[in-house]
Amino acid sequence: MAKAKHVSETPATKLLKQHGIAFSEHPYDYVDHGGAMEAARQLGLDLHAVAKTLIMEDENRQPLVVVMHGDKEVSTRNLARQIGCKRVEPCKPETAQRHSGYLVGGTSPFATRKTMPVWIEEELLQLPEIHINGGRRGYLISLSPQALVDLLDAKSVQAALDR
């Protein structure tokens, strides 16, 4: 398999650079529906430290960002209860793209088109480093999870379900 090449700047990496947030880049060969598992496999990363960026909506169709472990699913019921909503559900891909400005499979929580509340699984905040999409398919960046709190005012939740 050919080694993925350097990825040019994205809105997410531009924002991180503007704020002096250190990160490293990890391009890989994007595979449709491969998700965090495929990225972790190609890059030799611990799937638990690879974070998925999910765009969801509440009962009023207000969008929100959920950052979850690559090896976990989101309990939408637990999430809704913790954030004070009646219901939370994943957006359709085209709706997620409209809210985030990123293609599904390349969604970063940084520099989204719409400003949305960001919720991060609490345990991710305890890791020294997480690997998260850098704003393009086939492109992860590694950084301190504290960057999500500092830049995006991310709030912690406990909404993980084991796969």
Automatic annotation (TrEMBL):
Q: Which InterPro entries match?
A: Prolyl-tRNA_editing_YbaK/EbsC, YbaK/aa-tRNA-synt-asso_dom_sf, YbaK/aa-tRNA-synth-assoc-dom
Q: Which GO terms describe its molecular function?
A: aminoacyl-tRNA deacylase activity; lyase activity
Task: Fetch the SUPFAM superfamilies from UniProt.
Answer: YbaK/ProRS associated domain
Q: What is its EC number?
A: 4.2.-.-
The alphabetical list of record keywords is:
Lyase, Protein biosynthesis
**Which Pfam family, any one, appears in the UniProt record?**
tRNA_edit
Its GO biological process annotations read:
translation
UniProt enzyme class: lyase
Task: Report the residue ranges that make up the YbaK/aminoacyl-tRNA synthetase-associated domain in this protein.
Answer: 38-151
Q: Which domain of life is it from?
A: Bacteria
State the family named in the UniProt similarity comment for this chain.
Answer: Belongs to the prolyl-tRNA editing family. YbaK/EbsC subfamily.
NCBIfam families according to UniProt? YbaK_EbsC (TIGR00011)
- Protein name per Swiss-Prot or TrEMBL: Cys-tRNA(Pro)/Cys-tRNA(Cys) deacylase
